[in-house]
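Marked as duplicate of an earlier ticket. Keeping the data here for the record.
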Amino acid sequence: FFFPNRTSPRVDSPYRRALVVDKQHSLNMLIPKKNRKEVYKYLFREGVIYAKKDFNLPAHPEIASVPNLQVIKLMQSFTSKELVKEIFSWRVYYWYLTDEGIAYLREYLNLSADVVPNTLKKSNRPATEHAGARDERPARGGDRPGGDRPGGDRPGG
């Protein structure tokens, strides 16, 4: 008779099956440091990042040197650490930096405290007037001065 070595786990043991299942399902994604840094710099500069849910897209639309899948996986990691807030709509992921994410990226990228993402910067555009602009709009209705209906725009008056 053949006696298997008792120190090694048997192939059909539950321990051995668990190891095989874990090896098949734990796919660690190795992302080059150059790509990781590019994504982090873009995210910190803009404060937001998006990615279409297309894992086979060869490059991200905004960061041409980085595959879309790597952007998605990096942001999934940030979401689990609560460094970004994720919104998914119409097959597009949107991620927004949280305060903890800003602090983490500032430390990772060795940036000073006065550098902030674009989403936190004040706008330099002058305020536009929204109220009181009615007299500048063209009149509604047809070719009659009061509108299409005689007696005003609404029925009965």
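See parent ticket for discussion. Strands lie at 48-52, 84-89, 92-97.
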